[in-house]
Amino acid sequence: MRWGRRSVRGLWVIRAGSRQHPSRLGLMRMKNLLIVFHSLTGGTRQMAEAAAEGASTEPAVATRLLRAGEAGPEDVAGADGYVFATPENLAAMAGVMKDFFDRTYYPALDRLNGRPYACLICAGSDGTNAARQIGRIATGWRLRAVAEPLIVCTRAQTPEAILAPKTIGAAELAACRDIGAALANGMAAGIF
Q1: What average pLDDT values come out for the chain (192 residues) when binned by 10 residues?
Q2: CA distance 104 to 137
Q3: 124: which DSSP letter?
Q4: Does the CA dihedral 30-50-39-153 come out positive or negative?
């Protein structure tokens, strides 16, 4: 189908004849994807940045990448979809991510129902408990998981290895990019 637009008394009207889709003409509201992350050793940051890179391939979705300590209730309420990325520390999500959820949970409660989310976990060995914690919070917000949690295990088991800067492998970063792209594309298409 061919699309176009013209102004009628200040209103934009779709008309046949142009080769552009209405979303490209500014006739549809741009969607917003919020990626909230915490990273101490760089692994989770790399994963979050890869998801943002994947999401940026969808021009109808604006992507914001925020550190958990900087994100607030207004950021959460203003987004149409989410990626939550955290390291797993002592078999739990990082404390800074927990603080983010503590500060935003009640102000955003009943304002996010049905919105899509995905989560990324950077873990030393397991990661499932951090994913489960985020899943429970998302259930309370009535968010809809659109992907299984992506858990990247670094196999860091000694204090030195745990605290050392991390480098996430190309395959794992590609999976993070795919999640970001799929979430953004689904949001733009109205699938979620």
Answers
A1: 35 40 61 98 98 97 98 98 97 97 97 97 96 98 98 95 96 98 97 92
A2: 11
A3: S
A4: positive
Please count the residues of the chain.
192
For strand 4-8 and strand 116-123, is the pairing parallel, antiparallel, or unpaired? Answer: unpaired
Whether the Cβ atoms of residue 39 and residue 45 lie closer than 8 Å to each other: yes
| Sign of the CA dihedral with 38 first, then 43, 49, and 50 last | negative
* Residue 142 contacts residue 113 (beta carbons within 8 Å): yes
Of residues 3, 69, 80, 71, the one with CA closest to residue 39: 69
* 105 class by beta-carbon count within 10 Å (0-12 exposed, 13-18 middle, 19+ buried): middle
Question: For the domain that residue 96 is a member of, what is the CATH number?
Answer: 3.40.50.360
* Model pLDDT, residue 29: 83
Q: Is residue 20 part of a domain?
A: no
For the chain, the domain total comes to 1
Tokens 């917003």 sit on residue: 32
CB-based contact 77:109 (threshold 8 Å): no
